[in-house]
Specification:
With 335 residues, the chain is an alpha/beta fold. The chain has a single domain, classed as Rossmann fold (3-Layer(aba) Sandwich). The protein is 31% helix and 23% strand. The chain contains eleven helices and eleven strands. The protein has helices at residues 64-71, 94-97, 121-132, 137-150, 167-179, 197-214, 225-231, 249-254, 259-266, 274-283, 310-314, and strands at 13-28, 33-49, 53-57, 79-84, 87-88, 104-107, 185-189, 217-222, 234-239, 242-248, 328-329. Helix 3 runs parallel beside helix 5 (167-179).
């Protein structure tokens, strides 16, 4: 699946996010008044098309996981609009969101922590059917066995508990639990980061096969650029709660525009030669991620950017297209 954005229209959009913000209040003093806000997600907009995988990458603390939870309405947005299949869901009450949960599911980072250790595999996988459908007990069992076989588990595993499985097997349970009600969108929050490298490849290949078979759309959150490259069609790069670049996979890896993206790509482990050492020196990211409580004025990356100039400190760059509509970047170097 490559270049899915070309020739796509409004009717092909599954998810549309407009200017989403998520601020967490910080309380202080004897009266516990709000003294500041942690700006976890700060004005994010993008679209996800049916059948594609949009990867979201960035350092820890960039707001990736919070964004995923806001889209799924596990957290309420502070501002902004979320449209799913053309319906706005950002202002719905939690009881109203329940009907949309059939079509939106999440695979969490920690497969052990996200599974109730007191429930058997059968109970865990069948629980979404119990909540969202009126299927009989036998129908739930049959569907659970079918999806377990799809993700590489045996029917005999139904009576076991999460602690009896390896990390890779537990993540397969999580995937089966997410897919059993046939969702359209699956938000994957670092789904392989807790797994061994060899198991990561197995799970990623499984997810790609399931995407083709069930016509799934993925929002794939990760910090590992090599993992995102393997599974994504387009990639959005987040920094300090904002998207600084978004482009098709090949365009991003071949011609990254934002200095932060260039720094992330330069951090991927490779065998050093004289040429690569020189290139790494040019694009290396220095310093620490600023606090989201008190982010820098202007461009959020300016305090770590080797190319920052006076305009970067006073004016926040907008996400625009310097070359074509598919490759957007928020950087004054291109405006």
């Amino acid at each position: 699946m490559t270049n899915l954005v070309q020739n796509k229209g409004t009717e092909d959009k599954l998810l549309d996010v407009h200017h989403i913000k998520k601020y967490f209040p910080i309380k202080g003093g004897i009266l516990k008044r709000t003294v500041a806000h942690l700006k976890a997600v700060d004005d994010v907009s993008f679209s996800v098309f049916k059948g594609e995988t949009l990867g979201i990458v960035g350092e820890s603390g960039s707001g990736k996981s919070t964004l995923g939870r806001v889209i799924l309405r596990l957290l309420d947005p502070t501002e902004g609009e979320i449209y799913f299949n053309g319906d706005e869901i950002s202002k719905l009450k939690q009881r109203q969101v329940r009907s949309y949960r059939r079509d939106m599911q999440m695979v969490f980072q920690d497969p052990f922590g996200s599974l109730n250790s007191k429930m058997s595999v059968a109970e865990l996988i069948e629980e979404p059917l119990l909540v969202q459908t009126n299927l009989s007990r036998q129908e739930r069992k049959e569907r659970a066995i079918k999806i377990m076989e799809k993700v590489g588990l045996r029917a005999d595993d139904r009576l076991k508990y999460p602690h009896e499985f390896s990390g890779g097997q537990r993540q397969r349970i999580s995937i089966a639990r997410a897919l059993i009600i046939n969702p359209q969108l699956v938000i994957c929050d670092e789904p392989v980061s807790a797994l061994d490298v060899s198991i990561q490849a197995q799970v990623l290949n499984l997810m790609k096969d399931l995407q083709d078979e069930f016509s799934l759309t993925y929002l794939f959150i990760a910090h590992d650029l090599s993992v995102v490259k393997h599974i994504s069609d387009r990639i959005a790069v987040m920094y300090l709660g904002r998207i600084v670049e978004i482009a098709p996979k090949r365009a991003l890896y071949d011609n990254a525009l934002h200095p932060y993206t260039q720094g992330l790509l330069a951090s991927i482990p490779i065998i050093d030669t004289d040429d690569t050492k020189q290139e790494r020196k040019k694009t290396r990211i220095t310093g620490d991620l600023p606090s989201p409580v008190n982010p820098p004025t202007g461009c959020p990356f300016r305090t770590r950017c080797p190319l920052a100039h006076e305009r970067c400190s006073v004016e926040r760059p907008e996400l625009k297209s310097p070359e074509n509509d598919e490759h957007l970047v928020a950087c004054h170097l291109y405006t």
